[in-house]
Amino acid sequence: QVQLVESGGGLVQAGGSLRLNCTASGSIFSINAMGWYRQAPGKQRELVAAITSGGSTNYADPVKGRFTLSRDNAKNTVYMQMNSLKPEDTAVYYCNLVLITTAPRRTYNYWGQGTQVTVSS
After folding, report:
1. Residue 103 has pLDDT above 90, yes or no
2. What average pLDDT does the segment 101-114 reach?
3. Is it the case that residue 1 has pLDDT exceeding 90?
4. Phi and psi torsions of 38, nearest 5°
5. CA 74 – CA 40 distance, rounded (Å)
6. What are the phi and psi torsion angles at 81 (to 5°)?
């Protein structure tokens, strides 16, 4: 069993900042990729940013230069610092982890429950 707990969403004015956190716990052998997706009303879920176990990052074009992804492997946690937020960043943000469980030794794709980010103009 693996649990993902997200935190850090909320309401902020345009130009403001938020930090999203996602912590995994349970029978985890290792975590490969960690990342965040978002889904705005009426739109498909899209990748925002991802980070590999080696620390390589990938950002969607709309957030490059504004969002920063980092991870703490010892805490099984991924952080996303979001600066210069825009109204178009408003969405439900979902944490996503690709991890290997302890037993059985298998790879799974886990999703968080989602956290709302609302940016007012």
Report:
1. no
2. 93
3. no
4. -140, 155
5. 32
6. -85, 125
